[in-house]
Amino acid sequence: MSGAGVPDFFYREALRLGYVARSAFKLLQMQNKHKLITRGSAVLDLGCAPGAWLQVACQSLGPLKDGGSVVGIDLKQKGFKVVLSDMCPLVSGVPTRDAALSTELGMRALGVAVGRAAWGDAVDGSSEDSNDDDGVLQIGGSLIIKLLESEDVREFNQICKPLFRKTSWLRPKATRPSSREIYLICQDLQRRT
Fold first, then answer.
1. Among 77, 140, 155, 193, which residue is least crowded by beta carbons within 10 Å?
2. pTM score
3. Quick one: 81 exposed, middle or buried, by C-beta within 10 A (0-12, 13-18, 19+)?
């Protein structure tokens, strides 16, 4: 719609062509000019709601046989039952540095899942925003985070405990003996009061 609330050309054209929003034409113009998304590309769309750019990106990948993938995430998508984080920093060989980087990645995953305000509450009792909708994990959902064993993992668990009904640690049998990887399994995200 135009600023005046009257359906304009792009709004009507989006409806006609089956796009969920007029913003599809923004990416189409960029794609036509710069050809950024090629057959078989891997594409990550941050801030993907309502999904028009996802539609254009998928169309730009070409036939399924060429491969490629499009993943979108948006903080408006409050609907993930499970969030998985198998992220690990590029290991430097300095255990304290690697553990600190691993904890930082874990905190980022926690922030995406439950929102920064939620874990801010757990860390220091403060909250910038009491809105439950600032993370992508739905109430009752689960989160798995890979961390490197260190002194900090106990603190990390203490941050997660008030947010979830149950937290537990697992070192899978498939983990190499020389690895310091450990997984924090957080179950049943609780509604904040």
1. 193
2. 0.68
3. exposed
Domains parsed from the chain with CATH numbers: 9-121+134-189 (3.40.50.150)
Neighbour-count burial for 40-59, b at 16+ CB within 10 Å, e otherwise = ebebebeebbebbbbbbbbe
CA 78-159-98 angle, 5° bins: 100
CA angle 92, 97, 101 (to 5 degrees): 95
Task: Determine contact, residues 119/163, Cβ cutoff 8 Å.
Answer: yes
pLDDT tens-digit readout, 166-190: 999 999 999 999 999 999 999 999 9
Question: Cβ(163)–Cβ(188) under 8 Å?
Answer: no
Angle at 188 between CA 100 and CA 115, to 5 degrees: 50
3-class secondary structure, 183: strand
Contact indicator for 145, 104 with CB cutoff of 8 Å? no
DSSP E strand boundaries for the chain: 42-46, 69-73, 80-85, 137-148, 164-170, 181-189
37 backbone dihedrals φ, ψ, rounded to 5°: -95, 115
Nearest-Å Rg of the Cα atoms of the chain is 21
d(CA 82, CA 3): 38
